Amino acid sequence: MPLVAAGHKRTGACPTFDRPVLQRDGTLLRVPLVGGRLSSQAAVAIAGISAEHGNGIIELTNRGNLQVRGLRTAAMGPITDHLRHLGLGHPDAALVTISPFANSDEHHVRARVVGALHDLLADGIELSPKFVVHVDDAAGTTSSRRAEAVLALTGAGVRVDIDQLGTTTTSAADAVDLVVALAEACRRVAPDARVADILQACGPGWLHAVLPADLAPLAVGSSRRGRTPGVGRYLGPCGERLLLAGARFGRTDAGALSALSVHHDELRITPWRSIAFTEPANPASRLLLEESLEAIGLIVDPADAAADVISCIGAAGCWQTEADTWVEAERVVASRANDPQAQRGPIHISGCDKRCATRGPMAVTYVGRTDGSGFDQVVG
User: Which one, of 256, 255, 229, 258, lies nearest residue 244 by Cα?
Assistant: First the structure.
């Protein structure tokens, strides 16, 4: 039985800050964050906007951003103006992303790439809204980030990985030149072209010829990827002790975000739909932190049955599906909690075959049927 019938509708448009998308539950606004960093002032503002103009649901995305759901269309102008005033919504945040665990040197590399791409765009070059360059951290924690190029500092310089094409390690200046040449190559093929489009249309030989570096093949199993953090305690790339608190099914609410801003000057949203907190040295303070996070609905115990269950909004908010993903997600969690033999490992509940909620490896995915009659289980 096919998972999704032929003719299943696709919008093809992802929400952005400058282009909010009208969904079933109202307008959806994506707020890009640089390295997942969100000041307490900005958190208060987003929580207030969600409570006053939306349905109170705030989603953590798989790129370390926030999505505010159910907003009134008439209020979008004042909302985006207010957030811009707080320094949010700049296109740079989505164009050149960076790990939430990056250090100052890695942020410097990001700034150089941003500046070079600015110069390119100022010359009239247009790039696909989905063209992204990513800067990883020292441990390779976010090296699996989907991007046209992933940059990482190494002892030998800057490593540049271009998916499906190759890798090279070079100086910071040459790495920036390589990224610019990659962007120019995409634009030469088509206004919305990405590397995958070039490889399909022109083949890898053409792209190798126009790039100012010799790329070695990306060997199977050569990824720098570190352990993908789950919820609970985690030792960061620089040795810092962190507590990662997960959002249940990838979403929280205005009240929780507002409560977090009272005690934390800055929040770090991770690509794993969690929030990273620096652990206090005092054991009593650590326990107090855990209890306060659990009290507002965040998950800190990796053994929690919902800790690695990911779900899209489903029929509650999306035009793409009639499947109730929330009910299915709760069913999966209950099954896990009551049955020690139940499926372990990351589980993805998707309302349709687009699987928007995650691009990472899953143990099992449940895909909603087009008629809303239930879900089909697939591996991966």
Answer: 229
